[in-house]
Amino acid sequence: MVLPDFLVKKTPKRENIRRIRNLLDDATLHTVCEEARCPNIGECFSQNTLTFMLLGDICTRNCRFCGVTQGDPLPVDPDEPARITSAVNKLNLNYVVITSVTRDDLADGGAQAFVNSIIRLKNSNPRLKIEVLIPDFKGNVDSLKKILAVQPLVLNHNLETAQRLYPFIRPQADYQRSLNILRQSKEINSTVYTKSGFMVGLGETREEIFALLEDLKAANCDLVTIGQYLAPSKDHLQPQRFVDPEEFEAYEKAGKALGFMEVFSGPFVRSSYRAAEIIRWKNHNVY
Fold this sequence. Notes:
Radius of gyration: 18 Å
Order of helices and strands: HEHHEEEHEHEHEHHEHEHEH
Largest sheet: 8 strands, mixed
CATH topology: TIM Barrel
């Protein structure tokens, strides 16, 4: 499929990526920006914003849309939280997003790596705001409780797509399980903001998108991101259609009408894109 004009983005400047890499001076650190081949990498790296990825760069699942490598991951590196903290300090960040590959091989799904990172980051800079983008931990509530106990500002867990498409696109995930993570998060710690995102253009209908928004609202989700699916490579699942900007605006209006704290919807929106801005929009006075 030929990209429409509104989806044509300038090639990222390699010097921005090299500059960040040189500044970090740590080849063992991973970012989802690079591993998932995000189209916004040039823009974000030029502004010193990036999403750190815990637990290596190999995922135990194989979602058909994802550019992260699937396979047998390496053992957990206990020094990873310290290296991420060092990188955050070098970049002089006041807001950081941390995600991970899915680690179904670990008893807690990797939750302790998030906990260790949050604690170390807060000890290094008490004013730092932290957003975590977590996997589903196979529904392990104890893993969720551990993360919420150390008080990230935002807990993000993506639904990714409409329920009907899960068996085809996310066969190892479960739609209701993901909704439960968001619902349980609010029940466990109502002071942590919850966030979720999904892609369009994978074959879902407009009615399914509206239903997805209603499900997220029923789960007490605060923040929603909606973006166009773009294949990471020619070998990945290809988009079924390209959603025009007006349709994205309609989804944003529908979400706001449902009462979400914020809805960020557009062709290049991704779950961590401009994350600090989303939580600050419209004088929410979050920080």
